[in-house]
Amino acid sequence: xxxxxxxxxxxxxxxxxxxxxxxxxxxxxxxxxxxxxxxxxxxxxxxxxxxxxxxxxxxxxxxxxxxxxxxxxxxxxxxxxxxxxxxxxxxxxxxxxxxxxxxxxxxxxxxxxxxxxxxxxxxxxxxxxxxxxxxxxxxxxxxxxxxxxxxxxxxxxxxxxxxxxxxxxxxxxxxxxxxxxxxxxxxxxxxxxxxxxxxxxxxxxxxxxxxxxxxxxxxxxxxxxxxxxxxxxxxxxxxxxxxxxxxxxxxxxxxxxxxxxxxxxxxxxxxxxxxxxxxxxxxxxxxxxxxxxxxxxxxxxxxxxxxxxxxxxxxxxxxxxxxxxxxxxxxxxxxxxxxxxxxxxxxxxxxxxxxxxxxxxxxxxxxxxxxxx
Length: 373
Hints:
Elements: E1 32-38, H1 51-65, E2 69-74, H2 79-85, E3 91-94, H3 102-105, E4 108-111, E5 117-123, H4 139-152, E6 155-162, E7 169-170, E8 175-179, H5 180-183, H6 194-205, E9 209-213, E10 230-234, E11 237-242, H7 249-263, E12 273-278, H8 287-291, E13 316-317, E14 321-326, H9 332-342, E15 347-352, H10 354-358, E16 368-371
Parallel strand pairs: 1-2, 2-3, 5-6, 8-9, 11-12, 14-15
Antiparallel strand pairs: 1-16, 4-5, 7-8, 10-11, 13-14
EC number: 3.5.3.12
Pfam families: PAD_porph
Protein name: Putative agmatine deiminase
């Protein structure tokens, strides 16, 4: 695979960094060896003891397992339940977590032109720590990357910067997209300027161009993760969550992002082609949905009537499938057709995903691809 690597290390990478050693983060649409997930069970995130969410996670894992090996990490007390519910080809491993957002607590994998795999172990504070974070403690989540590095026997680069996997997307050819709202949020890295953060991204992920979108989706409790708003579907092409209702706060956010994307030039000198995915809904938490969760002091409140940050951009690109969330019967099919046209060589599978959304994220947020080196 030479398509997603720059020849040699990018110029200007700081000595000793992953980029200086020739490592880079491949695009999600490049080939994978596996997909990593975690098992939901947290009663203050998932209603009714997480049983409805577990069913949704099983459907996501089943769909992805058609195209690549799926590992699901489980706390010991849920191991047997998960093993019974998940299909036989899925590999269930004991891997304790505080919650099930593998995109954010799992490794950011890097590959090297010589065929080596490595990973980045970022800092993690549950999306903001005690200033807007979603739960406390997050000690088990913090150990997940080190444990996966042990399991795979790969180099782990420790980077003392607060960053979740959902906050970044790359094209594998030197370009990264992110949001200012998340990466420059004072509850993540208050001492880093935008230029500092760009240097971290270049040194760690082997990118040369960073496209900064102002903010993520409306009411996104991750402080605006880019993976809910915009993602690369091919080099030079992105999908953007769209809204046509001028009275919806998402309307301005999507247009603001479009203006930045249309003005951007990627690492290869291309203008970006933007594909719009009309958002579902708007969707709100129903009363019975809010009533099924435990209310704990350190947990993010989920109240009846709260708007959810629903987006069709939060899909997973597998080797042979694209797994997308089904969220709104009026919009699901149009989104599926758009994605099928964007990924003609993959089968687009829709999975009912409202239960995942109720927990605060979606299909991309609960998955993490392990690239084929």
